[in-house]
């Protein structure tokens, strides 16, 4: 059971990293077509914060558990 839970947590974090990374790629490559985000830099910074959050979770899971 422990391994299943750990695998699920890792998959969850990795999925969020992929999602937020894709968003950053979209903003970097197609920023003109995104009208609802007037401050692209701030929006990308928020996405990077989310990537860092989930990357930290992965690091803690792998180091301590």
Quick synopsis:
This protein has 65 residues and is mostly helical.
Task: Describe the overall structure.
The chain is built from 2 helices and no strands. The protein is an all-alpha fold and about 60 residues long. It has one domain. α1 (about 1-30) packs antiparallel against α2 (about 40-65). The model has no long low-confidence stretch (mean pLDDT about 90).
Our estimate of the beta-strand percent is under 5%
Q: Return the structural class.
A: mainly alpha
Task: State Rg.
Answer: 15 Å
- Span between N and C termini? 14 Å
Helix tally?
Answer: 2
Number of domains: 1
The counted number of beta strands is 0
What global shape is seen? elongated
Spell out the helices and strands N to C.
HH
Q: Regions with pLDDT < 50 over 5+ consecutive residues?
A: none
What's the helical proportion of residues? over 70%
Largest sheet: none
Mean pLDDT comes to 92
Secondary structure: elements and pairs:
Elements: H1 2-30, H2 40-64
List keywords for this structure.
65 residues, mainly alpha
């Amino acid at each position: 059971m422990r391994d299943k839970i750990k695998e699920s947590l890792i998959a969850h974090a990795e999925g969020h990293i992929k999602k937020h990374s894709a968003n950053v790629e979209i903003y970097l490559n197609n920023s003109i077509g995104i009208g609802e985000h007037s401050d692209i830099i701030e929006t990308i910074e928020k996405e990077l914060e989310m990537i860092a959050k989930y990357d930290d979770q992965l690091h803690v899971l792998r180091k301590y558990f």
